[in-house]
Amino acid sequence: MATVTAVRTRAPAWRGGFGRLWSAAVLSRFGDALRSAALPLLAASLTDRPLLIATVTACGYLPWLLFGLCGGAIADRVDQRRAMWTVDTVRGALVAAFAVAVALGHASIALLVALAFTLTTLQTLFDNASTALLPALVGPEALGSANARLMTGQKIAGGLFGAPVVPLLLAAGAAVPFLADAGTFLVAAALVASLRTGAPERAPGPAGSTLRREIAAGLRTLWRDRPLRGLCAATALCNIGMGALIATLVVLVTGWLHAGTAGYAAATTAYTVGGLAGGAVNRRLTAVLGPVRTVLLAGTAQTAALVVMGSVPSPAALVAAMAAFGFMGMLWNVNSTTLMQQRSPAGALGRVSSAFRTLGVAGAPLGALLGGAVATAWGQGTPALLAAAFFVLAVLALIPAARPDAPVAASRDGATTARAPG
Q1: Where do the domains of the chain lie?
Q2: What number does CATH give the domain 218-408?
Q3: N or C: which end of the chain has fewer CB within 10 A?
């Protein structure tokens, strides 16, 4: 058993591959934002039935529940770089073909559902491979800064630039946002294909190994590591709370606060700006507190922000709380991802990351249903308080992970090796 030691942090070098991976990730997120904003608008132009429109969105989540763990196991078996550029090439071709169908007037709800489902199915492999690839490009001491730069760049591309560009592209034609998205996939694929990384760090798998056994071994590895187990439980609880908040935020702003669409835009913008500020200070704050305590601080502060959202009927208070919530959310995301990368056995990172993502996706729709129910029963501000309750449970789940000298669990699947940051 290895034990965790303090890790000196430093900024990642843009050379050596990280700059190209960052560029690919940010460009791809920009394209995702274009497609995510244009797809519901296209669906609404094809049908006025809310259930059909919602089905398009739901199919963007369902593959994570069906194939998320499988995608992580495959990511641990293959060359992650090759898997990423292959997946992006396929996704680029699919979206380009869809754009042609839209331009020719052949779009339909069935085609939108098929596209959303297929793209997210491919994403289950891409995202887990991307998480597993980053430690091969930067050293352990630079992982935190690398994750912060990746997430900050993606938030700028998707939150500040992507969605506002969609109306301009749609003015040029319904197919244009999808053509632009296809282009970002293909350029990102070329950037990832140009990376030069060593062979994945894994031992040969045991005879008769199957995806099912490898998934089970990855889950056992996650369960045996106390900080990862606590972090995974906390992430699942937080995503239930986030689902409740996101699903009812527009009702809270426009109904309870009577702030209208301008208030809703101000709240979401404050969240984005807060996230960017969190990414900027993450490295210095984590150097003082360490990643686990930073996540604990973030969860505690987010709980307080949610209480303000649900109990203070003031648009100004909501905007300030959303900014703080976004700031602390970035600290949570960066440090939880970094901890997962540092503590996971080298050959099991894809499976561990897939467990986190699958639980997160599963929690969001559950939270959305709970948020809608409590808003109906007890008022439009109560979903934020419900979210605060789940964040309290998440912080409690994290407390055992903050104890010193937590061992890094070694996998017993015969295909992975343990490692600790240091």
Answers
A1: 2-196, 218-408
A2: 1.20.1250.20
A3: N
SS3 203: coil
* Rounded (5°) CA angle 340-357-285: 45
Closest to 148 in 3D by CA, of 30, 269, 285: 285
Place of tokens 């990642």: 12
pLDDT by residue (tens digit) across 339-361?
888 888 777 788 888 888 887 77
98-106 long-range contacts, Cβ below 8 Å, gap at least 24? 98/178, 99/175, 99/176, 99/178, 99/179, 99/182, 100/175, 102/42, 102/174, 102/175, 102/178, 103/173, 103/174, 103/175
Residue identified by tokens 């007037």 is 105
d(CA 388, CA 330): 17
- What are the CA-CA distances from residue 200 to residues 129, 132, 134, 255, 411 (Å)? 11, 9, 11, 52, 16
Look at residues 306, 295, 296 and name the one whose alpha carbon lies nearest to residue 246: 306
Domain 2-196 class in CATH: mainly alpha
Phi, psi at 407, each rounded to 5°: -75, 150
Separation CA 298–CA 285 (nearest Å): 11
Q: Which secondary structure element, helix H or strand E, spans residue 3, and what is its range?
A: strand 2-3
pLDDT digits (tens, 9 = 90+) for 160-218: 787 778 788 888 888 999 999 999 999 999 999 988 765 455 554 555 567 788 888 87
Contacting residues for 169 by C-beta, under 8 A, at least 6 apart: 34, 38, 176, 177, 180
Q: Are 241 and 386 in contact (CB under 8 A)?
A: yes
Q: Which two tokens stand for residue 330?
A: 């970035």
Question: Would residue 368 be called left, alpha or beta, if left means φ above 0 and alpha means ψ between -120 and 50 degrees?
Answer: alpha
Measured torsion, CA atoms of residues 301, 303, 307, 308, in degrees rounded to the nearest 10: 30
Q: Which residues contact 207 (CB under 8 A, 6 or more apart)?
A: none
Compare 1 and 244 and report the one with higher pLDDT.
244
Same fold yes or no, 2-196 and 218-408: yes
Helix-strand-coil split of the chain, %, nearest 5: 80, 0, 20
- Gap between the Cα atoms of 11 and 343, Å rounded: 20
pTM recorded for the entire structure: 0.76
3 pairs with which residues across the strands?
A: 407
- Contacting residues for 220 by C-beta, under 8 A, at least 6 apart: 411, 412, 413
| CA-based nearest residue to 151, from 360, 356, 354, 335 | 335
